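Example 4.3 (complexes with small molecules)
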Amino acid sequence: MYDTIIIGAGPAGMTAALYAARSNLKVALLEAGIPGGQMNNTADVENYPGYALISGPELAEKMFEPLENLGVEHIFGHVQRIEDQGDSKKVITEDEVYESKTVIIATGAFHRQLNVPGEAEFNSRGVSYCAVCDGAFFRDEDLLVVGGGDSAVEEAIFLTQFAKSVTIVHRRDQLRAQKVLQDRAFANEKISFVWDSVVEAIHGDDRKVTGVTFKNIKTGETSQADFGGIFIYVGLDPVSEFVADLGIRDESGWIVTDDHMKTSVAGIYAIGDVRQKDLRQITTAVGDGAIAGQEAYKYITEHE
Ligand code: FAD
Ligand code: NAP
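Answer. The structure with NAP bound is encoded below.
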């Protein structure tokens, strides 16, 4: 029986593990992939205090490193379900059942799809959701980035080091991204914008992507343009389907908590991007993690 099982080793889960282990709890950190979460797909982090600039994977490594010495058990596993049995919770992966007094859900969020014709067909053949992973394969190409948030603008800037040109298509005439990123994109000679428009279809030949059809949503006009690669950044959906039966989510799937990271089920907490909240950042994820690690300790001492 663990004191706490943390599901997901992104910045939120790793911080919860740090705080819980430093309270002497028996901690398991269950992760379906490589520890680090979305930080593994981020080239430059410029807004994590203490570092003017650090790469996402390096920050992930620095967060993960101390956990082993603190006795955190890192287990590879993809959690399918949590069963609440009052004082004990069962955490069920594809091939194991783990038991714990408390559970901290830190499964983050995953990129949304456009759901237009050609998107699935050309996935990994010119359509990508990760500039850091795939950008270098698109040297001297004309690239399209879809979206107007922090991810779209930041990754468009990142892609200019490889691409001949980068076009950002946004469904409105104003970006959602932070001002500092907007200013950098507007000043970058390789970046141009298509406003008030969406991608209606993605085209290609038998090998790879060749272009898209745009639709201007104000005029209804459609037009075609050629691109060698398309990077889609139209937001995130919570990774929370596996707790659908616990009744702790809002209508969009974000997990609802109070300021102590408590869900409506006693002993189950949610932290980081998967939680219903306003600002999804590494800093806010680690803040949530610290609170939940401490709350798990309080819950256990109060119940024993
Ligand atoms: P995540 O980082 O999403 O980690 C969740 C982890 O849970 C993953 O490792 C996943 O594999 C695991 N998991 C999911 N489901 C299961 C399951 N069923 N079983 C086991 N494990 C599971 N924020 C900043 O502050 N600065 C930035 O510069 C910045 N750049 C970004 C760039 C991009 C392209 C993106 C997409 C995001 C960026 N962000 C940035 C946002 C930041 O990365 C997130 O807010 C943060 O990573 C959220 O942390 P998390 O721990 O909640 O979730
Ligand atoms: P986001 O902030 O939700 O932005 C999504 C963008 O895609 C919005 O501009 C939205 O348009 C557009 N969009 C949504 N659905 C669309 C559709 N079907 N077709 C066309 N466009 C569509 O998502 P994100 O940029 O991935 O950011 C996610 C979180 O990570 C945010 O909290 C963000 O702050 C954080 N993040 C931070 C950094 C950083 O700090 N440097 C970097 C990356 C991400 P509208 O604007 O019209 O809604």
